[in-house]
Amino acid sequence: MNDGSISFPEGSLVSVLTAQPLDRLLDYKAPAGGCLEGAFVIVPLGPRKVTGVIWGSGQGGFDPKKIRSVSEVLDVPPMRAEMRDFLQRVADYTLTPLTAMFRLATRTPGLGDSPSMRRVLRRGAGEPDRVTEPRMRVLDALDASDGQLLAIGELCDLAGVSNSVIKGLVKQGAIDEVETPRDSPYLQLDPALPGKPLTDDQAQAADLLKDGIAKGSYGTTLLKGVTGSGKTEVYLEAVAACLEAGRQALVLLPEIALTSEFLTRVETRFGAKPAEWHSGVTMTERRRCWRMVAEGGAQLVVGARSALFLPFQNLGLIVVDEEHDSSYKQEDGVLYNARDMAVLRASICKAQVVLASATPSLESWQNTQAGKYRRVDLTARFGTAVLPEMAALDMRVEDMPSSSWISPSLRAAVTKRLEAGEQSLLFLNRRGYAPVTVCRACGHQIGCPHCDARMVEHRFQKRLMCHQCGESIALPEVCPSCKVEGKLAPVGPGVERLQEEAVQAFQDARVEVLSSDLFGSAHALKERIEAIAAGEADIIIGTQLVAKGHNFPLLTLVGVIDADLGLQGTDMRAAERTFQLMRQVAGRAGRAERPGVALLQTFQPEHPVVRAILSGAEEDFWQAEADEREALGMPPFGRMAGIILSSTDVAQVFEFGNVMARQRAALDRIGAELYGPAPAPIARIRGRHRVRLLVKAAKNAPLQSALREWLAQFRVSGSLRISVDIDPQSF
Ligand code: ADP
Ligand code: ZN
């Protein structure tokens, strides 16, 4: 367990990292008995006591008499040197205070509350000086316990004595107190259990991944395979190899709703469930998980992006499933991309990374082209399943009645599926009933009072809601602008409105909406998904929730209601996103023995992105995208950072942004370009106005240090906030 950490003798000066908002380490004296570098401790801070971790030797420079001592060393495995290194490097990369990283790495309250060791009693070599009736009962009870280890309280109960009786016997050596590890709450996974027999293709891919594990060194592999090709089956072989090698493994999933299906697969493969880490897990469970990960008792963790900051003792493999998914980017607090930080963490602890996707991000694709990542392809679907046929439905020639979104051609296709007893999915990436509510008297569109966003009608709840801030109001009768009554009308479709149309159009069909806001809990959602997969619906209407990884064996038709939706706007990533989403959704069809069809309703069938989606000429698509980005020096060929300024005062943000744009010498020195200030992608949230400055630099430019130097010139005041977003999602 010794990873080269220094031990500090009592009284020596140590620096401690806490979660205090001031971005600095605090000096303390090591406590009686000394402490290890990385040890979790309690330190006095003003009148309070806070948790911290020993980061290194103290910096000094304060009056030594004023330096206080560490109050307590917690009974928690110390933070390993590689973890400290990782936190420091994430902080440096994302320009985040190290103190904020501490919070990420210890996001489990009551760190010292569930010690891994418990004190138990056993018969000692000594004899009691005096044999009394209670003492006899204690010794008899202990002898009768027959090797079962008893804690002091348990023995008190058994013998019917107070604990002073037992303490007396301990003092005389008749009973010894010993420490023993608590039982692990997790069952052992057995990597030696046989997996499913793999196809040649799959076996070849699995062997490549296993080679990487055997080397015990760092490496990243992009595992690219169409949905249903067996990527999960293949990377579970890498997990097996990692566990065989006695190292821990981590599998990141983009969506909590996917975990339970995955847990079951792990149980089938390895005979026990892995540890789980995400926001749906209780605090007690999380505390145990954190602890067991640190002690090595959790062999495999399945979790959301924050699982990357768990204190693994010996991490050998990180799998990032659906690596292209934008939910790997944390958009709050510490702005990091879990996919990229997984690669960083693996490089520090000499682990392997597997990035799995049917539609990789342009970044990962480019990294394989450049030879930084290996690439393994699974080209065929497993078994008899074949990829869905894809076709465009040209909406310019479809005969569409008003307030209708299902074209006659799509309708005919659904009817055919209904007759065959198969399922259809109608995909529309819009929650609610209608995205816009407009007054037919004055043309006013109802917007959120706090955000730069329209209020979305949710008819089931009879409310208008803001999808940015959650503001919700009862559906008004009267236009808030012109006060005319009864003229408010929904414009455009959301999934709820589409459902209305589907129920009308397909009278006997069972229509079901799958949208994240319609379920109270991840559990309720999971149950519905399972029921639907088992055939409890004929037509599924879904948002992007259904695009991710679920298996619907009876589904043979996917109808995309608005394939052009993602192509509007100016975001450089729009094409990539649309391509990924459309291919993912289409991949839901025909996963079992029945072949599938995907029909895309579009007004621009000759748009290059739509054509690429239909033809499936992926490599050409990536290459064209890459060429375009390269010509513009955009990621992944250049680097970008977004600086978001926000304030309740709109004049202040722009003024401040202009000042920052003028004092840009530090950026000029690295040849970086600066755009803005301009309204941020979401220009107002929760009453705060937001403007964005975008910095673009060459790939090898020292972007972080230039940003640091540039930002250091400005002092924020009032309600102004600055946040730095390295590698922003939209640009
Ligand atoms: P992906 O992760 O690429 O979408 P999966 O690993 O989920 O693909 O595989 C799709 C389906 O095919 C799953 O139901 C899986 O159990 C099954 N499958 C894949 N490979 C095999 C195999 N070698 N033997 C048996 N079933 C397999
Ligand atoms: Zn709002």
TrEMBL record:
Keywords, A to Z, come to: ATP-binding, DNA replication, DNA-binding, Helicase, Hydrolase, Isomerase, Metal-binding, Nucleotide-binding, Primosome, Zinc
Catalysed reaction(s) here are: Couples ATP hydrolysis with the unwinding of duplex DNA by translocating in the 3'-5' direction; ATP + H2O = ADP + phosphate + H(+)
Q: Which GO terms describe its molecular function?
A: 3'-5' DNA helicase activity; ATP binding; ATP hydrolysis activity; DNA binding; zinc ion binding
Task: Give the top-rank taxon of the lineage listed in the UniProt record for this protein.
Answer: Bacteria
InterPro entries according to UniProt: DEAD/DEAH_box_helicase_dom, Helicase_ATP-bd, Helicase_C-like, P-loop_NTPase, PriA, PriA_3primeBD, PriA_3primeBD_sf, PriA_C
- Cofactor annotation remark: Binds 2 zinc ions per subunit.
Its biological function?
Answer: Initiates the restart of stalled replication forks, which reloads the replicative helicase on sites other than the origin of replication. Recognizes and binds to abandoned replication forks and remodels them to uncover a helicase loading site. Promotes assembly of the primosome at these replication forks.
What protein name applies here?
Replication restart protein PriA
Q: Which organism is it from?
A: Qingshengfaniella alkalisoli
